[in-house]
Amino acid sequence: MSTPGALESGSRHDLRTGASPDAPDEDKFKDEQGAYGYCHSYETSSRYDGPGLRVVLFVSGCLLRCTYCHNPDTWHLKDGTYVSAEQVLRRLGEFAPALRSIDGGLTISGGEAMVQLAFVKRIFAGAKEMGLHTAIETSGFLGDRADDSFLSVVDLVLLDIKSSDPDTYRRVTGRDLAPTLRFAERLASIGKPVWVRFTLVPGLTDDPANVEGIARFVAPMKNVEWVEVQPFHQMGSFKWKAMGLDYKHHDTPPPSRELVNRVLGQFRDAGCRAR
Amino acid sequence: MKGSAARKQDAKTDSWGGFQQGDWSSTINVRDFIVRNVTSYAGDETFLAPASQRTKAVWAKLQPYFAEERKKGVLAADAQNPSTLLAHPAGYIDRDNEVIVGLQTDQPFKRAIFPCGGLRMVETGLKAAGFEPDAKVHEAFTKYRKSHNDGVFDAYTPEIMNCRRSGIITGLPDAYGRGRIIGDYRRVALYGINRLLEVKRQERAQIDDMWPTDEVIRMREELAEQMRALQDLASMAKLYGRDITQPAMNAREAFQWTYFAYLGAIKEANGAAMSIGRISSFLDIYIERDLKEGVLDEAGAQELWDQLVQKLRIVRFLRTPDYDALFSGDPYWATECVGGMDLDGRALVTKSSYRMLHTLYNLGAAPEPNITVLWSNHMPAAFKRYCVKVSRDTSSLQYENDDLMRPYWGDDYAIACCVSAMRLGKQMQFFGARVNLAKALLYAINGGRDEVTGEQVAPQSMPVAGDFLNYEDVMAKFDSTMEWLAKTYVHAMNCIHYMHDKYFYERLEMALHDRDILRTMAFGIAGLSVVADSLAAIKYGKIRVARDAAGLVVDYQNEGNISTPQFGNNDDRVDQIASKIVTSFMEKIRKHPTYRNATHTQSVLTITSNVVYGKATGNTPDGRRKGEPFGPGANPMHGRDSHGWLASCLSVAKLPYKDALDGISYTVSVAPQKAHLSETQLVDEATKAFDLYFGRGGFHMNLNVIDRETLEDAIKNPDKYPQLTIRVSGYAVNFVRLTPEQQRDVISRTFHGQI
């Protein structure tokens, strides 16, 4: 279990703030009330992960193994730091007045945020009590687990649809596509606001037919406010190296401006609001 | 409100025609003039005009000097004639095209000497720049005339000398002008010299029947000096063919009169910081009147601003290499404040606030004048947006919290140097640089011995015992070290300012003040984040000490690598330690009476001296290595504010302004945006971020919008970036004119994603 930079004094991975240094680390994860969970890190000033300014909490644990993942250090649940939801909320509370004044909110990302469903729900419920906007970033793979009461504390879903083609999806993530599409349809049926996110990786997800498929799937959904095209970048590659993992994208370039424009054009032509 | 009566252009006596009269008409009260006559502007920047042909011609003439100076440093110096109001004949850049005239000496970029501050500084500065000191000046200032510097060293104690040498107190203005005094230069334009003289005469007459205590005699002598300075100022203007004994008749004269007053100040004093004050909304009143009368158009109005700013960009003082190491990049802090609100809740934003910012486009980005936006959350949205855009394009602005300062200083204050608020014409400060609190903590640990030299600097006390640091023990020791340091510091400051008043009195700047003013004595601290992180490490971690052969603690080990809270992450455990230190040192300073009964204030500000201080300070318990720069001003240590700018700025916003009334400096560097948001949205979001930070009580923000790559390229190819401006603690510099060490320091700072 190696997490680069983790737990260094003051590192952004340090989530023990508020905990006594000798707090017990025993495993209470089975707690179905979600009173405890594993978190990887947090940051306070994101403009990418939802409307306004976001505090982003990265929880650990993910069932997908995307070949271009830029946070492979969040795959394993116990790569994270064991903290109580109460502690997370206390910390969030220190930012709540500032976030309210700037129309910001809390985004929980990962890892896969739905792995620790009860924990995440508890934090979202606490954030709602503070008057904050809440967003979850998810692959949707565990969407079946998200019941209505979970979705009631989520204002926005940032849904990563990595591909519209089951084979490509499996090549990218190692998993099935169907649960994600099912989740998207359910969100559409209840009118839950969604930003669809698509990571554009040259040579992997850039096939026009692949893009077309997502666009056609998403276009009729009135709850989808944005389709966001996220250009692949190499900023996570050092983590793969540090963790001794086999990284397949050493030679993959970021997408060219033309490619990004083509893909944006495909989405827009299909009737999506894309950016 | 505007006066309605049209003015007769030919009537030389009607300089106030068209203005709303009020208290200002019968007493000296520029503030009253402004609030009665100012025209707030809530629109956007689309009215602005480009640089005029004349402006471009003057600017072109100056370019070779700038280029040459980047290569050579000091271009010319007058070693023979100590600077006074009348020491030099009139000087010009391009007589046909200069709309505003007046130079410090007879040529642009020729530096003057100020031996009254200290002869040593003059001679070291001349030699360092490759000039020969003058024998006659040397004789005069060794045989016949004593300097401020000589006086201070007559009064210093061995203990103060030790503190100065060890670097626990640094940057004291004991060898040159103290600066930080802002004359109310606007008074010359509004009232003319004759009227100001008459008021000074009245002020003098009022104390004629007071018994001549030291204080009364000093006041009489000072008033006499002030009146002489005003007369000399009028004579100086006459060298340029202008009669400033009368009030300015129009905008061009108002600019010229105001600039003459400032020029006089920089001919008479070489203070580290020579702010111009808060002139833009004042001068805007004259522009508005001329526009209304049809004698000026927008191009002409912008030309006045551009040309005044050209003059402010070529102010030069002769400094020494030591001085440059502390205050890099040749700064002089010609600080000008724009924006803010008045006490009636009306924005003091005028079209000239825009015009002042617009000079950064017409003339390119530049560190001087040090343009300071007095940010109020109530200012018009359009102006906020324009400020953010200018920051993004030029990194040349700093912001200070008007909503925080207004209750303390009213609505006619300006900023001396970087962050010190001064009520114009009613307040001055005794500037006092800063102490190195991180070093003080190490002294506490080592029983008063210096961690680098081993020398006993603070009084001998019990050093820490055992292998591990204990929080209560270290705090108690640190507390008594701070007690000693505060006392020694006030002692030194009293000596300095007594002698400065005696040997290097700023007669002209003080002539542009009321007789009875508030004096503050401005103390300062450096290394706040190092101290806070160190104390938090001791409190929340387990810090093992390592001693050298002489028993001196020289290093610290965080046993078990326990993560401890660090300032800059909105973590109360350490943020409260930082706030407590600010308050505690201020309370200790307040215990000691000051020269002329000045009010004690304090700043958390380092200028660029965070590098020099770091260099002189050993390993600290927070894990900072010996020689590593401190975070500048109140900044978290580089890289430790790792949760984003929101967390970082919320920590800084907690520092108590009431115990740091001389200002709290915070520098933020953000990368240019790469997000999916549109330009408009980004600007909107950034203004909201400003409102948030200032709304939470943040005092100051020095904003850089730049990426690390650009800076690295600028180190390699300085010629490509002649005007690359970057804000450091409280001021801006040409990046390529920083020392290599300071360039590295700037690059190693935390760069946040966009705000």
Topology:
The complex is a heterodimer of chains A (275) and B (755).
Chain A (H helix, E strand, L loop, with lengths): L35 E11 L7 E6 L21 E4 H9 L2 H6 L3 E5 L7 H13 L3 E6 L9 H4 L4 E5 L5 H8 L4 H13 L3 E7 L7 H11 L5 E8 L5 H6 L14 H13 L6
Parallel strand pairs in A: 2-4, 4-5, 5-6, 6-7, 7-8
Antiparallel strand pairs in A: 1-2, 1-3
Chain B lengths: L22 H4 L3 H8 L15 H20 L3 E7 L27 E4 L5 H10 L6 H10 L3 H8 L2 H9 L2 E2 L15 H20 L8 H26 L11 H18 L11 H14 L4 H16 L7 H6 L9 E4 L11 H12 L8 E5 L5 H14 L3 E4 H8 L3 E4 L3 E4 L3 E5 L2 E3 H9 L25 H33 L3 H5 L6 E9 L1 H13 L2 E5 L5 E6 L13 H19 L8 E6 L4 H7 L29 H9 L9 E2 L2 E4 L8 H17 L4 E6 L2 H9 L8 E4 L2 E4 L5 H9 L2 E2 L3
Parallel strand pairs in B: 1-2, 4-5, 5-6, 9-11, 10-11, 11-14, 14-15, 16-17, 16-20
Antiparallel strand pairs in B: 3-10, 6-17, 7-8, 12-13, 18-19
Keywords (chain B): Acyltransferase, Carbohydrate metabolism, Cytoplasm, Glucose metabolism, Organic radical, Transferase
Catalytic activity (chain B): formate + acetyl-CoA = pyruvate + CoA
EC number (chain B): 2.3.1.54
